[in-house]
Amino acid sequence: MAPFLSASAALLQLTHQRLSPQSDAHKGIGLALLSTALFVVVGVLVRVLSEQTMGVLQILFVRQLVLMTLLAPAMLNALDSLLTPRHLGLHVARIGGAFTALSLGFLTLGHLPLANATALGFTQVLFVALIARLWLKEAVSRHRWLTLLIGFAGVMLVVQPDFEGTALVYTATGLAGAIGAAVAVVCVRRIAQTEPRLTLLAYQAVFVGLLALIPALLQWQWPTPAQWMMLLGVGLLSSLAQWLGVSAYKLAPANVIANVEYAKILYAMAFGYWWFSEQPDTPALLGAGLILSSALIPSLARQP
């Protein structure tokens, strides 16, 4: 427990020291913390729906349908630009990565403890570094590799894969989902240099929804009123969390917000304990501390 608490306290203290008391960055941190919490709540809803035998692709389709509905007015106003993408190949790769990340991420959330599924998502940063190095030829310093490996070690301590049975299968789906997310992130880096943000949001909302449509219909079960509320909650809360996250990056430095997002492991452990009675053991708490430390180390290295 001590490494976990000390790393958490140090991260928050260092973030506070780096910002002036009256700066907009404090608002950005608050929005990032709220955004991160909402994403964990979405995970809770997905887990509850999965436990009620609702298929993950049905959940994903309704989520995308909500996103498309919210984006529809803006999409209609910018229809000409949406119909003339500049990087079609990158858009296809990004949509494929996003579909893989969301579908396998939801599948993992439905079968592993909340903290374990959340921790596996943090391996995305390791895969982003690998893909960017191999594809974009971006240099990755030894110091950066060290922090990535520390974070990965923390993930393994939280997850503690036993390498047999269904737990191994869903650990693998979590890692595959993280690889899909990394592909999407790397594609966004390239596309965002020339394409408007609306194009990125609209393409993902529409085409991930279309990919989920047929398999969702094949496994469709008509939701109860309570399940409809949870499905709509997944879509609305995901949309709100994304908007808050984007707003946070506008108000605070990217490295600060990226570090704050590691608080997701704290939320996941808290919600897992409260909602699903998932009790983290000592290695899991140590692993959470290492995950937080992997965010803390780069900031410490920049201190004068």
Total beta-strand segments: 0
Query: What portion of the residues fall into strands of 2 or more residues?
Result: under 5%
Largest sheet: none
Number of helical stretches of at least 4 residues: 14
Give me the Rg, rounded: 19 Å
Rounded mean pLDDT score: 84
Distance between the amino and carboxyl termini: 30 Å
Short overview:
The protein is mostly helical and 304 residues long. The chain is 81% helix and 0% strand.
Descriptive labels:
disordered N terminus, single chain, mainly alpha, 304 residues, 81% helix, 14 helices
Can you characterise this structure?
This protein has helices at 2-17, 24-51, 56-77, 79-82, 88-109, 114-121, 124-135, 142-159, 165-191, 197-218, 225-251, 254-260, 264-276, 282-301. Helix 3 packs across helix 11 and helix 12 packs antiparallel against helix 14. The chain starts with a helix and ends with a helix. Residues 1-12 have low confidence and may be disordered. It contains 14 helices and no strands. By secondary structure, the protein is mainly α.
